Amino acid sequence: MRVVIQRVIEASVKIDGQIKGKISNGLLLFLGIENSDNHEDIQWLVNKIINLRIFNDANEVMNKSVLDIDGNILVISQFTLYASTKKGHRPSYIKASKPDFAFPLYEKFKEELTFSLGKPIQSGIFGADMKIYSINDGPVTIIIDSKNKE
After folding, report:
1. N or C: the chain end with fewer CB closer than 10 Å?
2. How confident is the model over 58-83, as pLDDT tens digits?
3. Is 85 tagged catalytic?
């Protein structure tokens, strides 16, 4: 699994002109899934995300996690995180999982994230054409890959 994490002041997702999910003060996550991903990837990634200390403390040092600040999370599925641009000018998405494999893992990821955060998260709709709006804070943007463990 590959995730792009953005620290945000606010973020929302619209589908067909309607707001599907909206958060303030927290994390906007773009999640990509590949065929070798499994439950261990979900557990490792969820633990890493909710404990990642990227929010400022009273001294303006990034010492707090989304849990520490009682922050919110918006998750967006994004197969393009597995784009390969090695050959030519049209990206290849061959490494990205097909929906029949990726959708159940995406749902399990959201379930585990909700449980670990201790409150509901917001999300888009898997496979939908989504419009994402965000106000990045910092900006702070981090990419994590569960296979590289970094």
Report:
1. C
2. 999 999 999 999 999 999 999 999 99
3. no
